[in-house]
UniProtKB/TrEMBL annotation:
<dbReference type="GO" id="GO:0016998">
    <property type="term" value="P:cell wall macromolecule catabolic process"/>
</dbReference>
<dbReference type="Pfam" id="PF01183">
    <property type="entry name" value="Glyco_hydro_25"/>
</dbReference>
<comment type="similarity">
    <text>Belongs to the glycosyl hydrolase 25 family.</text>
</comment>
<dbReference type="InterPro" id="IPR002053">
    <property type="entry name" value="Glyco_hydro_25"/>
</dbReference>
<dbReference type="GO" id="GO:0009253">
    <property type="term" value="P:peptidoglycan catabolic process"/>
</dbReference>
<dbReference type="GO" id="GO:0016052">
    <property type="term" value="P:carbohydrate catabolic process"/>
</dbReference>
<dbReference type="GO" id="GO:0003796">
    <property type="term" value="F:lysozyme activity"/>
</dbReference>
<dbReference type="InterPro" id="IPR017853">
    <property type="entry name" value="GH"/>
</dbReference>
<protein>
    <submittedName>
        <fullName>N-acetylmuramoyl-L-alanine amidase/lysozyme</fullName>
    </submittedName>
</protein>
Length: 213
């Protein structure tokens, strides 16, 4: 991988997308899309459902110099499920060496989500994940009551008016703001989830080049 010069990109101007098999590889011109993307966060799985495109998305974006991270939708219904999901996430993605491991928490599945997600985070670290982040549904943030101090970063969706522009800010502290699911970028004909950094963390923190630039 020949990454872009991330040190020349201001954090607030960095374009971050997140994708899954809902954006099929055959519909993406990776060379063109990569010109407009600084970081891609790619879904690995939704519980026991493996994303059909995740390996290809990682390879294709990295071939164009775009650093990639991984995310998994959290579905664990008890402590054992959380442990097992963490192992599946690790096993399916470890060889891709993502820059960040994101746990996507958008549903209340465990009787104590704070405890359950904490177990998941700790299991990821036991397996070797260096940076683990939490994607937290805005409308469930208070109910979930996750221990964000255990995470290396927080990512929150908040779409504001529903347009493709970043015209809102999450009510809760976050490092990355997912501001639309109706984004458009050259290289893909459909809608894309677009994200921006809203904390004082530099882009390098998320793409694994901090201290190496």
């Amino acid at each position: 991988m020949n990454p872009k010069n991330s040190s020349a990109i201001k954090a607030e101007e960095a374009m971050i997308i997140d994708i899954s098999h809902h954006q099929p590889s055959e519909s993406i011109n990776y060379e063109e899309l990569a010109k407009h993307v600084d970081h891609a966060i790619i879904r690995t799985m939704d519980a026991d459902v493996i994303d059909r495109e995740y390996e290809k998305h990682h390879r294709k974006f990295r071939a164009q110099g775009v650093p990639t991270a991984a995310y998994a939708f959290v579905r664990g219904q008890n402590d054992t499920h959380m442990i097992n999901e963490a192992k599946m996430f690790w096993d399916r993605t470890k060889d891709l060496n993502p820059t960040f491991w994101w746990l996507d928490v958008e549903a209340v599945t465990h009787s104590d989500m704070r405890k359950g997600v904490s177990i998941y985070v700790n299991e990821m670290r036991k397996h070797g994940a260096e940076k683990v982040g939490l994607y937290i549904a805005h409308h469930l943030y208070e109910r979930l009551s996750l221990d964000t101090s255990e995470a290396d970063a927080v990512w929150i969706p908040h779409y504001g008016s529903g347009s493709a522009s970043a015209d809102s800010t999450p009510k809760f502290p976050a490092d990355i703001h997912q501001y639309t699911d109706k984004g458009r970028l050259p290289g893909y004909v459909g809608h894309l989830d677009l994200n921006r950094i809203i904390s004082d963390k530099p882009l390098e923190y998320f793409i694994g080049t901090e201290g190496c630039i």
